[in-house]
Amino acid sequence: MKQYLHTSRKADCPVTPSQQDIGVTYVRWGKKMCPENSDIVYTGQAGGNFYTNKGGGSNYLCLPSDPENGKAYSYANDGLYGAEYEIHSDTKPSGLPASLGNKEVPCAMCRRKGKVSVLMIPGRKSCYKGWQYEYTGFLMSEHTTHNNKDFICMDGKAEPLDSRSSNENGALFYPVRAKCGSMRCPPYKDNTEVLCTVCQAGGSYYNNKGGGSNYLCLPSDPENGKAYSYVNEGLYGAEYEIHSDTKPSGLPASLGHKEVPCTVCRRKGKVSVLMIPGRKSCYRGWQSEYNGFLMSEHKSHNNKYYICMDGEAEPLDNRFSEENGALFYPVRAKCGSLR
After folding, report:
1. Mind listing the pLDDT tens digit for each residue in 184-197?
2. 326, 3, 327, 6: which is closest to 179 by C-alpha?
3. Angle CA(83)–CA(326)–CA(266) in degrees, nearest 5?
4. How far apart are CA 334 and CA 328, in angstroms?
């Protein structure tokens, strides 16, 4: 049976560069060095938008330690801050020291030569067959009461940027706790740490102001973390919000309130992937993987990414319970600033 929530299209481009020119990049959050088989592109500190800012960027950035600064600028749109750990004795995941609390977060931009795919797998600490491990850790994002940011994989041996501890705030990293309901348990476990791994070869609740802003494809065979008492329930399953009066053409209204399956796909021999909004066919030189409808959260909820939902979408199973969690709504175009 097909299980889709793939969100991309891939280029029909043969791998022509020499092997030493091929490589993938990824960020190692919480560490100043890359794993021994990877090269450092640069090292620096994690940054992002201030945790209470309603607008601005929703992703964390790895900021280089040797910036080339622009000119002084009077416009008041202060949108880039450093990032701190929000890890304390009563909130920390197993294995991380409480001494990280309120300290800034280092990061390293890494490149693994000779590889063409990199993948962060939420809910597991080991890679699938055919994939090689880079590092493991804990899924983190903003607090559910703050404004959304991406889910990232914080290294399980995270360290501080330096010895300074001044509680400057800025962008913040909180551990995430799994929540059953729309997310199937088993195989997941309620109120546990969410492990993660980054290898080379799953969304937050719709009404949560903060937490992750990206949807995740959660594996069906998770490796669950330990039970976790800190209340930051940031990882839920996802449901279709498609009904008879709101559904796009071609999708059945029976999908409404059912959970959404997904598959993470890899196309061998290709080096580029692209989701094109507003089109159902690819441009010359690109090859279609699938087409469908642009979807995201409702505009009255909190922000998430746009994704391409397969035009032949199907339910995860026959269960109908309206657990909510993360939600997928069809998107409608609005002319004006959109030409």
Report:
1. 889 999 999 999 99
2. 326
3. 80
4. 19
Do residues 82 and 128 touch, judged by C-beta distance below 8 A? no
Residues for the chain: how many in total? 339
Torsion of CA 181, 154, 275, 3, to 10 degrees: -40
DSSP letter (8 states) at residue 255: G
Residue the block writes with tokens 């913040």? 172
Burial 39-68 (b: 16+ CB within 10 A, else e): eebebbbbbbbbbebeeebbebbbbeeeee
Q: What pLDDT, on the 0 to 100 scale, is given for residue 50?
A: 86
Give me the pLDDT at residue 208, please: 63
Is a pLDDT exceeding 50 seen at residue 225?
Answer: yes
The pTM score is: 0.71
Integer Cα distance of 181 and 236 in angstroms: 7
What's the mean per-residue pLDDT of the chain? Answer: 80
pLDDT at 280 over 90: no
Alpha-carbon distance 104 to 203, whole Å?
26
The CB-side HSE value for 326 (13 A sphere, CA atoms) comes to 32
- Output the 3-class SS for 32-95: CCCCCCCEEEEEEEEEECCCCCCCCCCCCEEEECCCCCCCCCCCCCCCCEEEEECCCCCCCCCC
Are 225 and 194 a contacting pair, CB within 8 Å? Answer: yes
* DSSP code string of 171-221: EEEEE-EE--SSS-TTTS-TTBB-EEEEEE-----TT-SSSB-S-----SS
* pLDDT, tens digit (0-9, with 9 covering 90-100), for 97-114: 999 999 999 999 999 888
For residue 273, the surrounding DSSP H or E stretch is strand 273-274
Burial of 334 (0-12, 13-18, 19+ CB in 10 A): exposed
Under a CB-based contact definition with an 8 Å cutoff, are residues 234 and 196 in contact? Answer: no
Give 171's strand partners: 83
Burial of 14 (0-12, 13-18, 19+ CB in 10 A): exposed
